[in-house]
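In response to a reviewer's request, we include the raw inputs and outputs for one of the modeled complexes. The two entities were modeled together in a single run.
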Amino acid sequence: MSRTLLSGNEAVAQGAWEAGAVVGVGYPGTPSTETLQFFAKLPDVYAEWAPNEKVALEVAAGVSLAGGRALVTMKHVGLNVASDPLFTLAYTGVKGGLVILVADDPGMHSSQNEQDSHNYAAFARVPMLDPSDSAEALAFTREAFGLSEKYDIPVLVRSTVRVSHAKSLVETGRRANLPMPSPYRTDPLKWVMMPGMAKLRRIDLDRRLNELESFAEDTQLNRLEYRDRKVGIVCAGVLYQHVREALPEASTFKLGMTFPLPAGRLREFAEQVDELFVVEEADAFLARSLRALSVPVAPLPLLPTSGELSPGAIRRAFGLPEPATREADDTLPPRPPLMCPGCPHRPVFNALRKTRAVVTGDIGCYTLGALKPLAAMDTCVDMGASIGMAHGAELVGGFEGRPVVAVIGDSTFAHSGITGLMNTVYNGGVGTIAILDNRITAMTGHQGNPMNGITLQKRPSHEVDLVGLVKALGVNRVRLVDPHDVDACITALAEETAADELSVIVFRAPCALLVKSNADPYAVDEDACTKCGICIRLGCPAIGKDEQTSRAYIDTSVCVGCGQCVQVCRYDAIVHTGPSCDFRGADVR
Amino acid sequence: MSATTVMLCGVGGQGTILAADMLAKVAAAASLEVKLSEVHGMSQRGGSVDTVVKFGDEVFSPVTDPGMVDHLVAFELIEAMRAVHFVRPGGRLLVNPTPIQPLPVLTGDMCVPRGLRAILDGEGAIFIDADELACEAGSPKSANVVLMGALSTGLPFDESLWRDVIAGRVPPKTVEANLRAFLLGRQACERGECAL
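The model returned the following structure tokens for the whole complex.
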């Protein structure tokens, strides 16, 4: 066996492949995205991006119905979207094994909230496995498929950023040689969840859960490790690794399966240690669950109840000394994420600022338009919220005469925007919707989507006719604008926000990272620059303000020559550098 | 051996993650346990990027805390200052002193504090002019490998392990330049000439 360095995400994909999964489906979302990308490259599998997580889970349910094993991947907030099928799939159960990776983001490195997906396992009554590193991510995922079929239920595999995006060594194995699924037989009592059948499956779900509770008492997935018995810690996932580092002498009950819980073994552990603590992050799911099972849990008031934990946070909660070190310097200029040089979103936000619009925003790179210096987005809630919220605001008269503009990306529109727009049209709403179509799902690292017709395994497809779709929904005012044309953005937004009917502007230009620019960089003509600062307010990482002279300068190593700043400069002070130009290579700083 | 903690900090696009990957592969090739932790997502868009690599006979948590890092490799001056409190007393601090201006500085809203280099010097920093050495090696993009060369002088791994991993991890056309970059970083640190 060879040892390979794999991320938790890659290990989940490898585990699914070894278990014989034939289909992988999901929607990109940090920190889950690489799982399906890795799976898609393994031999003898089919993998696809779905427009959203609900569709992904429904596709996988179809695979399961037909007897195949399917892996579904999503981030924690994706499970909100997929929760509708999940709750009922717990009733129907499965034929082929159905395993859902849900990747949580405690600390919100790249998310709008830090919900703990453990709650979904208990809420939907489906088992959940919690790997603590890549080796377990592989082994647990492989085992999850067997559990799914044995107990006739979908299985959640939960990871967090520090499992998904941590790499450690794993031993990979061979792919299981599964028997052909038995022939399909119509089974409405199992698959048609009308009330009469669902009532029976509800009772059967409890039976299956009882069996899983027995399994939880025996399984090697849960691991009791007795060391010093003064302190016993119950933990799961990467928290186990943190605890082992922070409190190497403590006894641990490592839960590999966090739902259902092994009540008997937990009570036994509580009796064997002087004090039992629970260490978990972002929520107190395990502590609540243990207390509900009458397992005495000692309070740990110094453990943070929100955010991401580390070994240091656990040491502090147990009153252990801190290492001597200097104070963190929090006066340093921060480095917020930025729109890239040449990003086609930038001129749209530049124009939005001029309209004085209230902008309901959405989830994607363009959410960065809320940050200074563009600062032209008022809200960011969830995928698709921009359109519904704009409609709602218009219903009560908007904002003292300020126009309302919803801003949404192409992939987000496909995910959850279409129904919102249909609602606005259907109910006679007004306002302006800007679809920022950069031809890719950019923020998560360039995945295909229905709007660009690029599929995960590069199979032939076709792209949605976005303008045609919007018209078909009943929007009369639809226009297509090149966002790199600064004036066209301003004109389009001014005209459409002045119109008294619903309008949609599709701003279409590929993501700057998709374009291999051969354009020469620009430079600032110091004599012509009046220090007005208008170019700096574009928030381009290539443009800076000289500390001494207050003039603008352009870092030619960062500039991609998009020319957006040239268009906003009123003094022709931004000039082309080229082979014949003196500015080329000059240190303009 | 007990676990060694290395932290690489820099700005998105500087190649910290690739460098961390190489270090982790070297540790694995030396038959050690290894864990690497990185943060993706919005940090790719010009944000600060921290990557932690831990290796030893047994490694538990993939993350670290202030005062616990044995070797901090800073790919950029301001990021060095942001992370210097992670270095344990007696730990090693390698810094590429070329600054990359954060957006609030570019827009004139904030200034880069003066005297960062002197503070880091007081913390025992070894300054490696990685960008210049990378150009000297023949590939401006090999600054991350220069810094791995500098780091390698304080780690218990054979140079040959590093060379194998680098050769297998960079684009074929740049292997020679990257191996030169590694050597230049190594020499710069060994000579101590860069310790100002």
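As requested, we also summarize the result in words. The longest strand of chain B covers residues 48-56. Chain B has one domain: 4-102+129-191.
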